[in-house]
């Protein structure tokens, strides 16, 4: 029997947005992906040496990975940072254009924009796919909880808007060859905008019906689902 509806994220996580932050990589993951780019633009702005800026950024990603390894933390985001910075540094070195350091990340953002948009249009909003398992409802929201499916769709459009804003700001700066402002915008539109999207996602889900918690498999091979009670 349905209980009183409450903010889904808050019920599964007393901190409200904490589980959402972790689901999208955590603050530490965003630091791993953001700080090397900041180091690159600082070194390049001061010395105007593409090789030095690239080596500084790449060296920092390696150092962050080593720290995670020593602390026995996940290397997923550190590894992604090493790959991203390495590709960006290589492209910039080959082209001789410092702004190309940021090109792979910008293209990746465009890919995410398209993926999130398509997922919302085909009624498989990616936010629901990502958060369903985290919040214990798996994919029950799609066929048994239309209110949550609508909320996940709205939240997915929030992230589409995030990627669209980034592209609208970054690509003109890239085409203008303004490396300093491009790097600054990349950092400014990184963690801050990401946190705004997290908060808006939580607000949307807070107004949605409570998730249908998926129970453990029964002995007969079936499953039972019940609406979360406050």
TrEMBL record:
The chain crosses the membrane at residues 46-67, 74-93, 105-135, 156-175, 181-205. It holds the Pfam family DUF3159. This is DUF3159 domain-containing protein. Keywords: Membrane, Transmembrane, Transmembrane helix. InterPro entries: UCP010219. It comes from the Bacteria. The keyword Coiled coil does not apply.
């Amino acid at each position: 029997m349905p209980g009183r509806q409450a903010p889904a994220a808050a019920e599964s996580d007393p901190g409200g947005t904490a589980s959402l932050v972790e689901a999208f990589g955590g603050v530490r993951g965003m630091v791993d992906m953001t700080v090397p780019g900041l180091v690159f633009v600082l070194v390049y702005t001061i010395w105007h040496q593409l090789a030095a800026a690239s080596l500084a950024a790449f060296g920092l990603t390696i150092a962050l990975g080593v720290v995670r390894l020593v602390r026995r933390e996940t290397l997923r985001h550190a590894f992604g940072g090493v790959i991203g910075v390495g590709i960006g540094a290589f492209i910039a070195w080959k082209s001789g254009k410092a702004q190309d350091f940021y090109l792979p990340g910008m293209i990746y953002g465009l890919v995410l924009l398209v993926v999130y948009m398509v997922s919302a249009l085909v009624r498989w909003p990616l936010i629901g796919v990502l958060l369903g398992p985290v919040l214990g409802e798996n994919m029950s929201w799609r066929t048994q909880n239309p209110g949550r499916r609508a909320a996940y769709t709205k939240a997915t459009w929030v992230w589409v808007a995030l990627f669209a804003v980034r592209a609208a700001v970054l690509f003109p700066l890239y085409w203008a060859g303004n490396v300093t402002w491009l790097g600054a915008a990349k950092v400014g539109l990184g963690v801050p905008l990401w946190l705004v999207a997290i908060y808006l996602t939580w607000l949307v889900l807070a107004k949605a019906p409570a998730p249908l918690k998926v129970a453990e498999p029964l002995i007969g091979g079936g499953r039972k689902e019940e609406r979360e009670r406050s």
